[in-house]
Amino acid sequence: MRKPLLFALVLVLLTFSFRASDNMLTTTLPLIAKYYFHFSSLTIGLVSSLATVFAFLSSGLLNARLRGEARRRAFLIASTTYAISFPLFYFSSPANVWLLTSVMGFAIGVLMPNVVTSASLFPEQRTRERLLSLYTLALSTSLIAGPSIESAVLLKFNLFQAFLLFSPLAALVFALSFFLDFPKSVQEVEGRVDVWRRSGFKLSVALNLMYGIPFGTLTTFGGIFAIDSFGASYSAATLLFSLFFTTSFLGRLALTIYPPKGLWGFVGLSTSLTFAGLVMAFFSRSLIMYALALIVLGVPHGITYPVSLISISRSFSEGERSVANSYFSAVMTGFSSFVPLLISGVVDVLGVRGSFGVLALITLLFTAYIFNVFKQEQKQG
């Protein structure tokens, strides 16, 4: 299935179904943990971290070492596990939610890097980068539609019932996974690829870490902040994420239509708007001000990930991209697995608002490192 248009259709549908259901899980689970299971902030962070911990293990320790048909079989097993486990959250309890979240995380860690790798295998650079941007655009579309749908669902159904209503999307991931191609014509690299020697990989990791920390905080505590600080309903708190992902969508739409020639202008935009959005969230005193902060933060969310994927695709050969994407996914999920846990400690001491101020300072540190990578690249060039 290497025809670009046909592949693009499968890519969009699979990505939309997966990310809409996956995001529903990551934003709804903290609400269930707090308001139904009455977990503490630390325990909320722990249960939210489990999915990313197991995604890190499956992506870095399993998927990065598989080749060809074995990787395809693992992908199909993961899609099956994802479809079966998702509706089981309807029956979740303070005891079994730990197991369910771990199983889902393991499946997610196999699914995501393989979708990205498949999109990055087209030999023609412009087509390849458009498909990568289209993949991230499908992510943003699902993240606009998903919270909007869930917001409407929560007007009549509870948080547990929402999992049943989103389960058809998880089933669609399973159905479409059989159509994703793993081309045998690509000679994958055997052995280890020294990814850290490539400036494109270092840029991708640093840029995503810079944004991944505040994003992990928003998905875990953003809804709780809106409810506790501004009296928002469950429905309104969920709808706020649609505003965030709308501006994310617009950024990715622009990159899909106009693949970037140079990346560093987008890098500067991402770092500056991340800092500005976190400062706005810290000083917000109304739901409208907080919503505006989320709108600003949506822009770097939109451009950071596609710029990172394009950077990797330009830095590695076709045979190296599966390894690079697996390690990139593993690093991201491994690091982000500790974000809810680490930030929950800050929340316990300073509150959610105070954590936004701390994250703004952390953003400045990552920005300094990112532009140090840029200077090194300029000297090498």
Automatic annotation (TrEMBL):
It comes from the Archaea. It holds the Pfam family MFS_1. One of its GO terms (molecular function) is transmembrane transporter activity. InterPro entries: MFS (IPR011701), MFS_dom (IPR020846), MFS_Exporter (IPR052714), MFS_trans_sf (IPR036259). Residues 163-381 form the Major facilitator superfamily (MFS) profile domain. Keywords: Membrane, Transmembrane, Transmembrane helix. The chain crosses the membrane at residues 36-62, 74-91, 97-122, 134-154, 160-182, 203-227, 233-255, 262-283, 289-312, 324-343, 355-374. Coiled coil: none annotated. PANTHER family: QUINOLENE RESISTANCE PROTEIN NORA (PTHR23531). This is MFS transporter. It comes from Candidatus Aramenus sulfurataquae.
